[in-house]
Amino acid sequence: MHNKVVYQIARTLDRLGIPVLRFNFRGVGLSGGRHDRGRGEQGDVRAALDYLAAQVPSVPLLVSGFSFGCWVGLRVGCEDVRVKELIGLGAPVNNTNLGYLAACEKPRLLIQGENDEYGSPARLDQLVQSFPAEVRAMTRVIIVPGADHFFAGLLEHVDAALIAWLTERHPQLVSV
């Protein structure tokens, strides 16, 4: 939760007035439990969504995740009716199956580094092209030129992509 990409996402969403909750998965940092290869971590995402929904009951939820958090978070976000939009960064498409996104009929933004060592843009494009046309139409992909998995030195491009997509979808949002 303290990695620079996750921090940047939370900062940008907060600047737009979107309620944000960052958390560590089980076994990370001071969190209890043990890594569960994405199975138990889905429960962590559900618990976070339950908590956030209780704190801001009138606000539609959005799930955003980076790398492992993208893989696990977007899966849960697809299944949860309270979640209306998805944002994935650094999707680990080189070694993880994100095929579940093909059946997910929720708008999503996918931001990937051009030189992401865990998710090549070509593999991400193959995934998106495998979606049915109506799902492909609700998917926006942004490739950040020159960026690695952590968008080192290029986080301002992540910020700009998030703001552009969210304010296009929600014109009432204003970046401060």
Describe this structure in words.
- This protein has 176 residues and is α/β, with parallel strands linked by helices.
- It has a single domain, classed as Rossmann fold (3-Layer(aba) Sandwich).
- Helices cover 39% and strands 14% of the residues.
- Helix 1 (4-15) runs parallel beside helix 6 (155-169).
- 30% of the residues are buried.
- The mean pLDDT is 93.
Low-confidence stretches: none
Count of discrete alpha- or pi-helical segments spanning 4 or more residues: 6
Query: How many DSSP-defined strands?
Result: 4
Radius of gyration: 15 Å
**Can you summarize the main beta sheet?**
4 strands, parallel
Share of residues in helices: 25-40%
CATH class group: Alpha Beta
Overall geometry comes to: globular
**Structural class from helices and strands?**
alpha/beta
Q: What average pLDDT do the residues reach?
A: 93
How is the CATH topology named?
A: Rossmann fold
N-to-C series of helices and strands: HHEHEEHHEH
**Separation, N- and C-terminal Cα atoms:** 23 Å
- The largest sheet has its strands arranged as 1-2-3-4
> How many separate structural domains?
1
Oligomer: single chain
| The named CATH superfamily | Alpha/Beta hydrolase fold, catalytic domain
Strand content: 5-15%
CATH architecture: 3-Layer(aba) Sandwich
